[in-house]
Amino acid sequence: MLRNRTGEEPVIICETKAALRAARADLAGSVGFVPTMGFLHEGHMSLVRAAKAECDRFAVSIFVNPTQFGPNEDLASYPRDLPRDLAMLEAEGVDLVFTPGPEEIYSGGDVTVDPGRLGRILTGELRPGHFGGVATVVTKLFNLVRPDRAYFGEKDYQQLTLIRAMVADLDMGLEIRGMPTVREADGLAMSSRNVRLTPEHRAEAPVLNRALDTAEAAGLRPVAELARIIRDVLDGQQVEAVDIRDARTLTEVAGVPDAPVVALLAVRFGTVLLIDQRVIS
């Protein structure tokens, strides 16, 4: 039987919304929440440890959300290993894990959340409908778990910006905590998709971090020049997008910025699309 942080109580594993609501009612004090799509890695665990440090109790969801995948994307091949994930969470003393199936999450009607401008730009252009799926499932999870704080990695910078805006605009009444990107020893940002890279592409993928390091070292300068610096380092790769945007609002920036900007990369290695980011100030 899985045990929570005290080692005395079993970790509560809920597969249904009804079970989750009943279990959540018994969690006293502040509750931290880490929503994931499973196949956990050290990046996820850094969020779990932050929730553990800052909240009285903490919960994790494991749900591969089909509505944020396009028709030609990797839903079927997305890596999954629930027993491994549960063992990792037990080691951190998690209180509650929500592991629903798609039919449980989407058992209702057709109402969805429109992510607005932030869902249509950048990755939203590359992956139409993606952020509508993200906004809808995160809203549903927040309504079910009712956390005081929720934790997201900065690697998915556009997602983090969107969720912060959604929580503020819809008066959801919780704090969104963005945590630093966790990287492999060679600089590659940790991602569940990394396991799908071929050995050759895995050897190439740290070029994303090198490109961002080079841009960060260059400092604030005309955004067109920053983009050129990044593209020069990425030369020879299948670059989907290099964008320099205002770090707070993701609006377009021209000339030399007078506030921090974020460099957002999307590069394809074979069939695997990897993203990365860096705030430059």
CATH class of the largest domain: Alpha Beta
Helix percent reads 25-40%
- Output the radius of gyration: 19 Å
What order do the SSEs take from the amino end to the carboxyl end, as H and E? EHEHEHEHHHHEHEHHHEEE
What distance lies between the first and last C-alpha atoms, to the nearest angstrom?
A: 48 Å
Return the CATH topology of the largest domain: Rossmann fold
Characterize the largest beta sheet: strand count, sense, and whether it forms a barrel.
6 strands, parallel
- Share of residues in strands: 15-25%
CATH architecture of the largest domain: 3-Layer(aba) Sandwich
Tally of helical runs: 11
In total, the number of strands is 9
Give the uncertain stretches in residue-range form.
none
What report would you give on this structure?
This protein is of the alpha/beta class and 281 residues long. The protein has 2 domains: 12-179, HUPs (Rossmann fold); 192-280, 2-Layer Sandwich (Pantoate--beta-alanine Ligase, Chain: A,domain 2), CATH 3.30.1300.10. The protein has 11 helices and 9 strands. The strands form 2 sheets. The chain has a 6-stranded parallel β-sheet with strand order 1-4-3-2-5-6, with helices on both faces. β8 and β9 form a beta hairpin. It is globular and about 55 Å long. It starts with 11 loop residues before the first strand and ends with a strand. Its EC number is 6.3.2.1. Belongs to the pantothenate synthetase family. One of its GO terms (biological process) is pantothenate biosynthetic process.
